Amino acid sequence: MEIRKEWGFVSVQIDYNPYYVEQLKLLGGKWLAKEKVWHLPPIQYEAVMELFQRNKNGLAEQTKDDLMKINEIMDDLKRLGYSSETIKSYSNHLKAFLAYSEGACDLTSINSYLLYLLENKQTSHSYCNQAVNAIKIYARKFSNIEETEVIKLQRPKKEKKLPKVMSQNEVKRLLEVTINEKHKTVLMLAYSCGLRVSEVATMPVANIDSERMVVIVHQGKGRKDRITLLSEKMLKQLRVYYKEYRPKVWLFENPDKDGPITGRTLQRVFNASVAKAGIQKSVTFHSLRHSFATHLLESGVHLRYIQELLGHSSSKTTEIYTHVSVKSIMNIKNPLDQL
Predict the structure, then answer these.
(1) Using CA atoms, how far apart are residues 46 and 287, in angstroms rounded to an integer?
(2) Whole-Å CA distances, 182 to 236, 253, 270, 277
(3) Which residues belong to any copy of the Tyr recombinase domain (predicted)?
(4) Do domains 59-151 and 168-329 have the same CATH topology?
(5) What is the pTM of this model?
């Protein structure tokens, strides 16, 4: 462990410890992956020194105990059939909460933490709600809070946000500026099939069915299988890609070719192409899925079919795209133009 007061920042080098990681984040720390060091505002120097001095003796056992409890919950969730992504998210939420509360789990510490997420970290309401879900599971198993109190834990009102959609011209530009065949195939598949980033990353080669012209999505969100469209143009691109890369099990392999590519890598690929295409909108990889659904709706495809292609359990989830489709709005004459 090394703490240095540099010009304009405090640098901290430590071995990985989830407790310290969360505490440094609470102090405004930023992890610099290349340098493998934490940088914090200079005003936090005393707080950093106090943090490591305060926890010098009792930290290891407390952290070990917290991690054992979290791992026990993660095992429970695996047995209950939760997805790996949900389990990972819940684990991270619990590590962050227990670091904030220093291992405590009572109504005061929970409500204080939720307020901290909303006011200090300014997280989204959906992020905060997921934290509540994780903390409830922990509270039921390891706290003395009555079940009636756990049920009544307050959560923020669900936000109603519109999907971030790109126009067909923007999608075209995005694909045109993407020269790398692997990267282009990734983006085309996400858009042409309406896939989530995790579904693209873990797509097996065997799930591309060129005979039936469908793509099989195995165990997507909510542990649901579904089929989606395989376009002629997409099939041609897949064949070009296959000849060059020769993937075996996973359609998009990691650099070592011993597993699938990561979702984070795909997001970086998308961001690079967005910047190169000069798209000014605030969009993410998931915007390709939103754009797929919106463009289908605007071309006259019935909402029920779009629901099936996206794998939505409820039609209400799919109906959000009616709010971003401009087809009907374009037929309305603006009163300003009539002056």
Answers:
(1) 43
(2) 13, 10, 12, 17
(3) 161-334
(4) no
(5) 0.67
Question: Does the annotation count 140 as an active-site position?
Answer: no
Residue 106 φ/ψ region, left for φ over 0, alpha for ψ in the -120 to 50 degree band, beta for the rest? beta
Distances in Å between the alpha carbon of 328 and those of 162, 166, 332? 17, 17, 7
Give yes or no: 223 in active site: no
User: Which residue among the candidates 116, 221, 242, 245 is catalytic per the annotation?
Assistant: 221
CA distance 149 to 32: 41
Please state which CATH number belongs to domain 59-151: 1.10.150.130
Residue 218: active-site member: no
Establish whether 264 is a catalytic residue: no
Kindly state the tokens that stand for 339.
Answer: 């002056």
Dump pLDDT digits (tens) for 246-284: 999 999 999 988 899 999 899 999 999 999 999 999 999
Q: 165 near 294, Cβ under 8 Å?
A: yes
Residues 68-82 pLDDT 10s:
999 999 999 999 988
Lowest-confidence segment of 122-136, 146-160, 177-191, 206-220 by average pLDDT: 146-160
Establish whether 286 is a catalytic residue. yes
How high is the pLDDT of residue 278?
Answer: 94
CA–CA separation, 106 vs 109, rounded Å? 5
Residue 212 a catalytic site member: no
Q: Which is the catalytic residue, given 25, 69, 125, 286?
A: 286
Summarised one tens digit per residue, pLDDT across range 35-71 is 888 998 888 888 888 877 765 555 445 577 888 999 9
- As its CATH architecture, domain 168-329 has Orthogonal Bundle (1.10)
